[in-house]
Design a protein that fits this description.
With 431 residues, the protein is α/β, with parallel strands linked by helices. It contains 17 helices and nine strands. The strands form two sheets. Strands 3-2-1-6-7-8-9 form a seven-stranded parallel beta sheet. β1, α5 and β2 form a beta-alpha-beta unit. α5 crosses α16. It is globular and about 95 Å long. It starts with a helix and ends with a helix.
Length: 431
């Protein structure tokens, strides 16, 4: 009846049941009858019993005064929470059993720079996208910053500029064709999103990533995740995860994506150490980098042991050598090997003799801190690479190393996820 239905409605609202507003009064009564009937069945041990419910029984059941042994709606809330938690754990386990080599994955490679700026964080992520698109049967998207024209003039060689992101994308794709000899099957997205850009000659808008001359870096601002289409929520590769997240105030990447891998390129502590108050800045940046990587990554790959210790990290060089450089080396080896011509000497005497006569040779500088590898390279002839050694230098081999090391060995626990969520909230509040 109406009174029982109203009481049921109040109880369901307390329990947080999302479907309450869509239930009609008859459906609400039926729902309450089902709960009381189920309780009577458990008590009597039979399937019989009168499911009819009046207003008094409804009130007793909902207020839990003990006269009716019923499971009221809000008592189901804890059970449903446990069920949701169990479901999330099952999904996490299922996700941990997938590999990055599985078909139909969706990779978003996010970096802090783009061509024509010839820096490591523009070239290497681009080549990673190119060769990853060949190695796996999955979608690959490269996400790069779009700069206002005033920053383009200051940063790009010969003051080269692009009126629109489409023009810059065409330039990047052409560079790839010339450099590697094929066009990779990948897309390019710019942050912030193209549809939200103001006129490209406005340099005061914080909707842009901005080039910081003091640090020689592009600093993303705001929430970059909002510029990546929501359907791309599978794998994120964060090139320089600390750099990308210093000023990131959006959701955790690990909440936005199922599998997040950070690739650490740069030893930023060395840059901090050189500044005024370098010791203090180095300690602050050390902890800041650790926080950013812990909160936003499932796995961290360090290119070198020279990079600071980071949580969830392994060290592996996952970059390759451009095929053009390898071809040049092969050509030199073939020419000197076939013609029998004398190999170029690398001794200090021959280097001095090769200098123009108008510039007298400076006396050789003796290294006081040791330079074994430099000395080795200057005094010995390079050995011819074996096919296996040559292959290990290629981007194909580097891509395979990346796919292996970037796998998540152990899924994140519920407690760990909650702690990192709390840390993210505190970081956002503090910054």
């Amino acid at each position: 009846n109406g009174a029982g239905a109203q009481l049921l409605l109040n109880g369901l609202v307390k329990a947080g049941m999302e479907r309450v507003p869509q239930l009609s009064v008859p459906d609400l009564v039926k729902e309450l009858q089902r709960h009381v009937h189920a309780a009577k069945t458990r008590t009597s041990g039979s399937d019989g019993g009168d499911p009819t419910v009046n207003a008094t029984q409804a009130k007793q059941a909902l207020e839990g005064d003990g006269s009716v042994d019923a499971v009221v709606p809000w008592q189901l809330m804890a059970r449903r929470r446990r069920q949701r938690l169990l479901q999330r754990e099952k999904e996490a386990l299922r996700e941990s059993q997938r590999t990055l080599r599985d078909d139909n994955r969706d990779f978003a490679i996010v970096t802090t720079a783009s061509l024509p700026w010839m820096t490591g964080t523009s070239v290497n992520p681009l080549l990673r996208a190119v060769y990853l698109s060949r190695a796996v049967k999955s979608k690959v998207t490269l996400v790069v910053p779009w700069l206002p024209i005033c920053d383009q003039r200051a940063l790009f060689p010969a003051q080269q500029t692009f009126e629109t992101p489409e023009h810059q994308e065409a330039y990047v794709k052409e560079w790839v064709r010339e450099r590697v000899g094929f066009e990779g099957n990948f897309r390019i997205h710019f942050y912030p999103g193209i549809s939200h850009l103001p006129p490209p000659d406005i340099c005061t808008s914080y909707k842009y990533g901005r080039y910081c001359k003091d640090y020689g870096s592009i600093l993303p601002v705001g929430d970059m995740t909002q510029y990546i289409p929501k359907e791309h929520n599978d794998v994120a590769i964060l090139e320089e995860p600390e750099h990308l997240n210093w000023f990131h105030h959006g959701p955790r990447w690990t909440k936005r994506f199922k599998h997040v891998v950070g690739v650490v390129h740069t030893n930023y502590l060395e840059y901090a150490r050189r500044e005024v108050g370098g010791a203090m800045k180095e300690k602050l940046l050390f902890n800041l980098n650790q926080i950013c990587c812990r909160l936003h990554c499932h796995k961290v790959v360090k290119l070198s042991g020279a990079v600071q210790p980071l949580p969830k990290s392994e060290t592996m060089f996952v970059h390759g050598v451009s095929p053009r450089f390898l071809e040049v080396g092969d050509a030199i080896t073939a020419r000197t090997g076939v013609t029998g011509t004398e190999k170029p000497s690398t001794s200090m005497a021959s280097l001095s003799a090769a200098m123009p006569s108008s510039q007298p040779a400076a006396p050789p500088t003796r290294f006081t801190k040791g330079a074994y590898f430099i000395g080795k390279a200057m005094t010995t002839e390079p050995a011819v690479l074996t096919p296996e050694e040559r292959h290990s230098l290629t981007w194909e081999a580097a891509t395979n190393r990346f796919l292996d090391v970037a796998e998540i060995k152990r899924p994140k626990s519920f407690v760990q996820d909650k702690l990192e969520g709390t840390g993210w909230a505190l970081y956002n509040a503090a910054t």
